[in-house]
Amino acid sequence: MFSQKLTDRFWRKSAPSPNGCLLWVGAKTAKGYGNFRVSDKYYRAHRLAWQLENGPIPDGMMICHRCDTRDCVNPEHMFLGTAADNNRDTRDKGRTNWSRGDDHYMRRRMFECR
User: Fold this and answer.
1) Has residue 96 been placed in a domain?
2) Phi and psi, residue 21, nearest 5°
3) What is the DSSP string of 16-57?
């Protein structure tokens, strides 16, 4: 599926870190995910890393990070999951700042405006 030249170019843009992550040192999105250009199209680096090692990503599936490092491209730190799986993983690890009830930012704003 991917040429050896493209594969080599891809992996040259990663560097090992002490925690086992392979950190993307190429271009990144504003949110910190790696970006990799193939022809005139950009792809998320972690998704390509998964595909290089494991093959195509099934429709409706996401590539989730076990290590919670957005610029990590180590396929061993990733798993396939749905959007619900990714949201659950985020919540279970306490990485969410979602607010409910009186703590919701819109409700606080309503009280501040009065």
Assistant:
1) no
2) -70, 150
3) E-TTS-EEE-S-B-TTS-BEEEETTEEEEHHHHHHHHHH-PP
CA distances from 73 to 3, 54, 60, 76 (A): 18, 13, 20, 9
Round to whole Å and give the CA distance between 28 and 30.
7
Domain for residue 108, yes or no? no
Domain of residue 63 covers 4-81
Give residue for tokens 């606080």. Answer: 108
Condensed to tens digits (0 to 9), the pLDDT of residues 8-27 reads 999 999 999 999 999 999 99
Rounded distance between C-alpha atoms, residue 105 and residue 69, angstroms? 27
User: pTM for this one?
Assistant: 0.78
CA 112 to chain centre: 36
